[in-house]
Amino acid sequence: MAHSVLIVDDAAFMRMMIKDILTKNGYDVVGEAQDGQEAVEKYKELKPNLVTMDITMPEMDGIAALKEIRASDEDAKIIMCSAMGQQAMVIDAIQAGAKDFIVKPFQADRVIEAISKVLG
After folding, report:
1. pLDDT category, 80, cuts 50, 70, 90?
2. Residue 43, Ramachandran bin (φ over 0: left; ψ between -120 and 50: alpha; else beta)
3. For the whole model, what pTM was predicted?
């Protein structure tokens, strides 16, 4: 059975790009969210194997969403997606329980490498 993934990013273009990379590599994209609040709700509803989480988003940012998801499911596997220059936020995210991070602009190989490493 394919691993299920929830994609969280406020930019529809980025969600589409990540979804394209994942579906071409055999992953099952079960949902998308455009902010942290929606991510928390969709995570509880869909229970995906993995979440790709943007850091900078409206309403609730990726780090707050990561903390809330991990508070309800300490086994949640979340990979942060950051832009260049957000190293301090990436460190916050890893300390809050993120499994890995990928830096935009994405390279398909790096996305798949990070996800397959986290899912084992």
Report:
1. very high
2. alpha
3. 0.95
